[in-house]
Amino acid sequence: MDSLNPESLPPLVAPARRPPRIWKFWGTTLWGLFIFAGMFVGQAAVIGYFVLRREGPIDLAATVHVVGSGLTISLSVIMGLPAVLLAAWVATHFSRTPFVDYLALRWTSWWNFLIGAVSLAVLVGGWDLLSRTLGREVTPGFMGEVLKSAQAGGALWLLVIAFCVAAPISEEVMARGFLYRGWSESRLGVPGAIFLSSLAWTSLHLQYDWFFFGEVFCIGLLLGYFRYRTGSTWLTIVLHGLNNTAATIQTFWLAGS
Question: Which of 69, 152, 195, 253 measures 20 to 30 Å from 94, CA to CA?
Answer without folding.
Answer: 195
